[in-house]
Amino acid sequence: MFTFVLSCNHIGTYLVSPPRLGDEVSCMTCWRLGRDANVTVDRPMDSWRVRCETCHYSRDTGADRSGAIRLASKHYARFPSHDVQYGIRGKAKSYRRIGTPVTQDPLLF
Question: Alpha-carbon distance 46 to 107, whole Å?
């Protein structure tokens, strides 16, 4: 999921093939309000991502930070031994861990 701020200050979200900066796109919010819907892409928005270091689970939530925390918590609740992280996609050291991975005690096995 790719999220951009448009020249009309609305947010555009694209699932596949994101536009480049400066491309002309249609703003659905402006269209619904009866304004000129042809706008340009101004800048990318921070995109929140959930990822699991243990399995292949990964989700993008766009600009929805609370949604990323909810998905990370939900995955960790279902699989408490997994190392689940959430953070801003593309920024170094922005990921935070949910819980602590459960380790097996070697004396019990």
Answer: 45
Residues 65 and 55: their CA atoms lie apart, in Å, by 22
- Cβ atoms of 47 and 89 closer than 8 Å: yes
Nearest to 18 by CA among 58, 56, 52, 60: 60
More confidently predicted of 91 and 58: 58
**The whole model's pTM is what?**
0.60
- Nearest-Å Rg of the Cα atoms of the chain is 19
The residues spanned by each domain of the chain are 2-44, 48-98
Residues 62-86 have pLDDT tens digits of: 778 889 889 999 999 899 888 888 8
